[in-house]
Design brief:
CATH architecture of the largest domain: 2-Layer Sandwich
Bound molecules: glutamic acid, magnesium ion
Radius of gyration: 21 Å
Number of helices: 13
Order of helices and strands: EEHEEEEHEHHEEEHEEHHEEHEHHHHH
CATH topology of the largest domain: Creatine Kinase, Chain A, domain 2
Strand content: 15-25%
CATH superfamily of the largest domain: Glutamine synthetase/guanido kinase, catalytic domain
Length: 436
């Protein structure tokens, strides 16, 4: 017998951002990496039914079945765990034992949409996530929205986050003290396809880890209190051809959106009320999607309008090549209770439906005082229950999600509504803020 503590062993955690938008999985000895990349770690179907609050409330899979979560080494990232040590995190795909994509794997849901977009239309998606969160490591000082004072009071936190991002090959864009109390926003440079969603998952984990090192928390929850201004996850997107050239911009077209891209944006708008069930998918999400919070309320297309659901972003100058590269549209109806795979996947599948049907871009009213109701613009759903009913009533959604995932998702999210049904609005927001 010896009292010596064992030497510290290196582990790797393989996870995926699941239906609750949380990264869950298992760790294994780093020495086994090669084997795990081939065979994965074991999971069961009900793993995807773990609720935001922990318990499995319902599951179509019960205790039955075996699956594997297979690491994708392109996502391997060192997450700071202590001042001197990192934990390796890698994201993965849930596959069947026969090595097929599992029907309910969120990352595969996105991949299916991206593959179809390229196969059918020769298009690739470029996207960047802009994520807002409340950082408890700074004082709740009045008058500090956008202020240098708040930014400085965060100390080394922003710099540490950027450093970890760069080591992970994620390129930071900006870090700002946002409008709400103790709120910040982090944006990274756009990436193509799956990688954009992988980056969004990793950014959240890196921000959380760096906050924890400062004995603080980063809360990405959609709203911390019912009347408060929310934390949005805005998704900037554009389309590229197979040579990675931007094909979204055309100066002569309405809103500058090229004829090739218009049906994609039209598809997103057409399906928007129902998409909300996948992109802003919690009870708390609907306290954010209310008037006067700079968050969307209507399923509208707005040019340079931060109240719009889908916002056409400005160009800041440059030549035609710069415009083709930089022009993008921002989807503002998402938050961090959505897995980035589900949110981006929803957007891609809806856009693809618009391309297949060659939908026309609607001409929504613009500017202050615009009368959306009179123009026939639809409102976003007012609650998760309403959003889920709209998703269930959308025939195209069966094609996007497949019968098994659609049924499991509706069951999962309806159980989440039941789980907070007895709480007051304040308690509901607090409950989500504990988790996200
Ligand atoms: N906080 C707002 C939201 O919940 C967005 C503010 C902005 O960045 O325009 O979406
Ligand atoms: Mg913002």
């Amino acid at each position: 017998m010896t009292n010596r503590a064992g030497a510290l062993e290196s582990l790797m955690f393989v996870g995926t951002s699941d239906l609750a938008g949380l990264v869950r999985g298992k760790a294994f000895p780093l020495a086994d990496l090669e084997e795990r990349v081939m065979f994965g770690v074991g999971l069961t179907g009900s793993n995807i039914m773990l609720s935001a609050f922990g318990p499995i409330y319902v599951s179509p899979f019960g205790t039955y079945g075996d699956l594997k979560l297979v690491p994708d080494l392109s996502t391997r990232t060192a997450i700071p765990a202590t001042e001197t040590a990192d934990i390796e995190l890698v994201l993965g795909d849930i596959r069947t034992l026969e090595n097929a994509a599992w029907s309910c794997c969120p990352r595969s849901f996105l991949r299916r949409g991206l593959d179809a977009l390229e196969a059918e239309h020769g298009l690739r998606l470029l996207a960047a996530f802009e994520q807002e969160f409340v950082y408890t490591g700074v004082p709740d000082a009045p008058g500090t929205s956008y202020s240098f004072d708040r930014f400085r009071s965060a100390g080394s936190f922003p710099g540490r986050v950027f450093g970890v991002l760069r080591d992970a090959d994620i390129v930071p864009d900006s870090f700002l003290p946002e409008y709400a109390a103790r709120q910040f926003e982090i944006t990274v440079k756009p990436r193509q396809g799956l990688r954009a969603a992988d980056d969004a998952v990793l950014v959240r984990e890196i921000v959380r880890a760096c906050a924890a090192l400062a004995d603080a928390r980063a809360a990405f929850s959609p709203v911390l209190e019912p009347a408060g201004v929310g934390n949005g996850t805005h998704i900037h997107f554009s389309l590229q051809d197979r040579s990675d050239r931007g094909v979204m911009y055309d100066a002569q077209s309405p809103f500058g959106i090229s004829p090739r891209a218009q049906p994609f944006v039209a598809g997103v708008l057409e399906h928007l009320p129902a998409l909300t069930a996948l992109t802003a998918p919690s009870v708390a999400s609907f306290f954010r999607l209310r008037p006067n919070k700079w968050a969307p309320v209507w399923a509208n297309l707005g040019e340079r309008d931060r109240g719009a659901a889908v916002r056409v972003c400005p160009l800041f100058g440059g030549d035609a090549a710069t415009a083709a590269r930089d022009f993008n549209v921002e989807f503002r109806v998402a938050d961090a209770t959505a897995s980035p795979y589900m949110a981006l996947g929803a957007l891609v599948h809806a856009g693809l439906d618009g391309l297949r049907r060659n939908l026309a871009l609607p001409r929504h009213p613009q500017g202050p005082g615009a009368d959306y109701a009179a123009a026939g613009v639809r409102m976003l759903p007012r609650s998760l229950a309403q959003a889920l009913d709209m998703l269930a009533a959308t025939p195209a959604a069966r094609g996007w999600l497949g019968d098994e995932l659609l049924a499991a998702y509706l069951m999962f999210k309806r159980a989440e509504i039941d789980a907070v049904a007895a709480l007051t609005d304040d308690e509901t927001c607090r409950r989500y803020a504990e988790v996200y």
